[in-house]
User: Fold this.
Amino acid sequence: MTARILIIEDEALVAMELRFVLEDLGHEVVATVADAASARDIVRESDVDLALVDIHLSDGPTGVALGRELGQELGVSVLFMTANPGMVRDGVAGTIGVLSKPTDEAAVQKAVDYALRRRSGAPVQYAPPGLQLFG
Assistant:
């Protein structure tokens, strides 16, 4: 299952690595952005199935509010990817869960596959290792 994915990450090397992993898996990376305003612009201009969202972006700790907005108001499936998973330990409405960084290619693949299956309504039996689900 291929998807249109938005990477919201302010660390250029992390964003580039994620892009390569996702493209190798056959997904289309719509864009890579480093701040909340740019992410909103992309989502309003393009079809996005899934957003991988860091919590701390170049404009500050705006990722949590952005993830909530993308998930609840704009219909995008959201996975947080952060080195600070405790910041979303209680969950964020409208989002799927959080993958702790640093992570590896296999964990990213499994988390993305899980999120896309869930988005499509396909049965999902359990979360992959490393992915903490909300609600």
User: Anything to note?
Assistant: The two ends are 25 Å apart (CA to CA).
